[in-house]
Amino acid sequence: MNRARMEQGIRLFLDGLLEGHEVDTDLVESAPGRVAEAWVEDLAAGYGEDPRSFLEPIRLDRARGPVVLRGIRFTSLCAHHLLPFRGEASVGFLPRDAHVGLGGIARMVDSLARRLCLQEALTVEIADHLEQALDPEAVVVLVEAEHLCLSVRGARKTGHRFRTLERRGTRCAELDALLHSGPGV
Q: Which of 76, 61, 96, 51 is nearest to 143 (CA)?
């Protein structure tokens, strides 16, 4: 990421936004640096990471039951409006012979979410990374989120939950239960 170019663009954006209005120039003057830093260090930090690097397979010969991790909270940025969406991802897989640390799954979700994306694509990418790293018999990914592009602009409807689902491989009752119960407890 090019922080200097980001600051220039933000400055240009603010000039256009505030043209003809009196504003506290001291506050606005330092905003481009703060905004660029927030994007580089946090909001879009996923671009500096390889999400697959968090999924180190662990061989467990006898552990064959379904694995479900629910309620992985994330914040992402809608590629359409550059506004955040926040929610929870739940991930389940039926292993062949490889497992992965739960923290690795959570970090992979966070790495993918901290980029410009659409929720539908985020859901697919989570499933892709699990499938490529673990070669499981089945994968289920459920993502639910509230999108600020629907809450603060356009229809202005708060409290909505947008749900996306990606399912691959063998059907499994325990993983199907994930679909019906949703994220969280």
A: 76
Q: CB–CB of 70/185 below 8 Å?
A: yes
Contacts of 146 (CB under 8 A, 6+ apart): 85, 86, 87, 158, 159, 160, 161, 162
Q: What are the domain boundaries of the chain?
A: 3-43, 56-181
CATH code assigned to 56-181: 3.30.1130.10
Q: Give the pTM.
A: 0.91
Burial class (CB in 10 A: 0-12, 13-18, 19+), 95: buried
Of residues 120, 89, 6, 100, the one with CA closest to residue 55: 100
Kindly report, residue by residue over 146-174, the tens digit of the pLDDT. Answer: 999 999 998 998 899 999 999 999 988 87
> Which pair of structure tokens corresponds to residue 155?
């229809």
Rounded CA separation 138/130 (Å) = 10
